[in-house]
Amino acid sequence: xxxxxxxxxxxxxxxxxxxxxxxxxxxxxxxxxxxxxxxxxxxxxxxxxxxxxxxxxxxxxxxxxxxxxxxxxxxxxxxxxxxxxxxxxxxxxxxxxxxxxxxxxxxxxxxxxxxxxxxxxxxxxxxxxx
Length: 130
Known about the structure:
- The chain is mostly helical.
- The chain contains six helices and no strands.
């Protein structure tokens, strides 16, 4: 797998070679994405209560109100673990994607190589053996 990993990250080829691993990774990615995007019932209830409290008691304008700019901390253990895992995996995924795209762009086709060789051959001055 190391040699295939070095060739580039092609999810289609990986899915053909390792269908069960691909399905497991897709399921895990779906679970993690859903966990990050969809708030829990407790978080939804807290957001509604906070909105009601802001509507009933609007904050008083002051230049030293630092509490209004502070985001509430998310104390869910699962959310903290997921965020840390994504922070670790994100650079790896981005480098794989960049390497795959750069590898495809860096390799000229056979026709392009032949055309370049023909141009170079046409530029060379003819040598006369004397």
